[in-house]
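Quick one: Type II secretion system F family protein from Pseudosulfitobacter pseudonitzschiae, structure tokens please.
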Amino acid sequence: MSPVTLYFVLTFLICTSLGFTGILLLDRSRRIRRARLVRFSTDHPGRPSARVMRRIEAVQAAEKGGLRRKRGGIMGLLEVRLQEAGVEITPAAAIGLMVLIAAGVALGVWRIGLLPPPLALVVGGGSGWFVFNVFLDILSARRVRRFNEALPDCLDILARGLRAGQPIPAALSVVAQHATGIAQDEFRRCCEELKLGVPLIRALTGMAERIGSPEAHFVTVATSLQAETGGNLVETLENLAELLRERKKLRKKAAALTAEIRVSAVILSSLPFVVAVTLYFMNPGYLNPLITDPRGQIMAMAAVASLGMGIFSMYRLSRIDV
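--- reply ---
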């Protein structure tokens, strides 16, 4: 093993070990803090007092937002992202997956001779973070889309139950029985939290935060305003369901108007790779200078960067917020 290879491997192992050690220590301190809050400040055995509940909520809020001031917000932000994507793994496991992706990319880039070991580590680390976040974005968008598609029907069922004289918890249980997919899981979880004594507004707020959908926040705001001001919740829910259906129609119209841009983006972004694969099979040595020659490597990286900027520009042009 050459000295450069040994240096590369040792540096990667040391960084990985330090990262995992820090992650485990941070998770352990968080669990100890939560257990200490509940164990030493209760009015009744096994039942936290109001003071403890406020402190636990403050800790949870710090873990989601204010944690940035203490440790960069990485663990809290990652936990929120995993919740929104519906991925049931710990932040430590997610960072472990990022490290594995980064290791694979770094070793691959280094082995084919594109970059020296230090730059390969940098490229691998950025690739691990980027690939995992794109994966979470895809899962989150799919989860939000499925929830929003089922939400208007759920609101109609809830409004009919309230119009028939049912209390809100009973109407929510009916929604949980008749809904499908992610909406059924989330409303069922709300019903279970209500049975355990969680206030309605807090249960709905938790659902909106887990989904990360503006429509779910609309439902929470409408319900909380009705609870505070005594407005007509049935009419509000019916109007909200109709509004969500209109937004869905507008999104479909926007998708139809921007279909040409999206198809052009797919064709133009895939064309360089199709040409490269074709040239490789026709003349395998034709593209070797792009890999072996430093000038070719610079040209290849510049081409990839310009292609990425073009794809991003077309993506922004085809995206219309409704």
